[in-house]
Design goal:
399 residues, alpha/beta, Rossmann fold, 12 helices, tetraacyldisaccharide 4'-kinase
């Protein structure tokens, strides 16, 4: 199954014009089935949007504003880091956020958010039915609406445990919940795949869906040349000319050993070392590039599909690779994993007992580029949420 997943992913990120020259016989044998499935998926996507557009299917509204963080392609777009950034920002200013996540793939992203946001007022609701999950949390904790509360997102603390905002993780295609702000994340390293819809390509929706976005964030913008950023921006503005565009990266902050999450180790611990990057994330290239920039002597990598749950047979494969590296470089290599991989199955990684396993901790960081800054991003978010409060209060007064 993993072999098929890898093959499908390679097809999705290879332009059709290059299929005959770069894909194997296995890959080419899959394309007719993927093409048929992609065509059926396209019909289903259009039908679903029409059902919501004509109110045959209804969108549910929450009594607090909803921020959706989503994307058009699978994996590696920075959705979860953006959710953490927003939740931490709101919590730091006394506005308790509720994160709504579906808990896909063993709920690794939810577990990671719980660990990262521990000690804050952020609440994390996990479940495929995010309307029902939200209702449960709003009933348990209550919610708060007050005139001008979101001005305090930048300036003044309110310190209430009642929920003040909901953050919809991976929300762009979750149409059953009304959102008041749509943030769309794009992976600068591979923004649109081969421009085909799933499963033939990486797109969940056609590029025209970008017209629904209120804010677009280009993630991993530091890892690509300026001409690629310009081309990406041109594509986006064809769909929505006036959309504000921001640029972010994942900023490494420290490592911690797999067996001691409380121990913070400096990034220089991998300098001049042999490193094996082990990952089951949406786009491993960015992870590997970050490690390479830290100055190790040699970097190898083993990449699995997104949300892959490591098992003992995988650990045996990893150990075989580590032994080969140790023999080649006459030194014991270090294993490095992402936080998402650690939180998915920390107990499995402990089977690599003869090797040091380090977890790389990163945080989303805004880049100052083309007039876009973190401050401007927060200002736009505040403006959207303040408008929501004004409309809600006006409706309440009329009622």
């Amino acid at each position: 199954m993993e072999t098929v997943r890898r093959a499908v992913k390679q097809i999705a990120y290879t332009p059709p014009s290059q299929w005959l020259f770069t894909l194997s016989a296995l890959h080419l044998s899959l394309t007719p089935f993927l093409y048929l499935a992609s065509s059926l998926y396209s019909v289903a996507v259009r039908l679903r949007h029409h059902l919501y557009r004509f109110n045959i299917l209804h969108k549910h509204k929450l009594p607090v504003p909803v921020i959706s963080v989503g994307n058009l392609t699978w994996g590696g777009n920075g959705k979860t880091p953006m959710v953490e950034f927003l939740a931490r920002s709101f919590a730091d200013y006394g506005i308790s956020p509720l994160i709504l996540t579906r808990g896909y793939g063993g709920a690794d992203e939810a577990k990671m958010l719980e660990r990262q946001l521990q000690g804050t007022s952020a609440k994390i609701g996990v479940g495929a039915n995010r309307v029902a999950t939200a209702a449960t949390f709003l009933e348990r904790y209550g919610y708060i609406i007050s005139d001008g509360v979101f001005d305090k997102f930048l300036y003044e603390k309110t310190n209430s445990d009642r929920i003040g905002v909901a953050i919809l993780d991976d929300g762009m295609q979750h149409l059953s919940l009304w959102r008041d702000l749509e943030i769309v994340m794009v992976n600068a390293l591979m923004p649109w795949g081969n421009h085909q819809l799933l499963p033939l390509g990486a797109l969940r929706e056609p590029l025209t869906a970008l017209s629904r976005a209120d804010i677009l964030v280009v993630h991993h913008a530091d890892l690509v040349p300026e001409k690629d950023i310009d081309a990406l921006e041109l594509t986006v503005r064809k769909a929505k000319k006036s959309i504000p565009i921001f640029f972010t990266k994942m900023a490494p902050i420290h490592f911690f050993p797999c067996r001691d999450v409380s121990c913070k180790m400096p990034l220089r611990v991998v300098e001049n070392m042999t490193v094996l990057c082990l990952s089951g994330i949406g786009f491993a290239d960015s992870f590997v590039q970050r490690i390479e920039r830290m100055g190790p002597a040699y970097v190898d990598h083993l990449d699995f599909s997104d949300h892959h749950l490591f098992q003992l047979k995988d650990i045996e494969m990893v150990q075989t690779r580590l032994q080969a590296l140790e023999s080649e470089f006459a030194a014991k290599p270090i294993v490095v994993v992402t936080e998402k991989d650690y939180d998915r199955a920390p107990e499995v990684l402990e089977h690599l007992e003869h090797y040091e396993v380090l977890v790389l901790c990163c945080r989303l960081q805004f880049l100052v580029h083309k007039g876009s800054t973190e401050g401007r991003f927060k200002k736009i978010v505040r403006e959207y949420l303040s408008q929501w409060v004004e409309v809600h209060l006006l409706v309440s007064l009329k009622g």
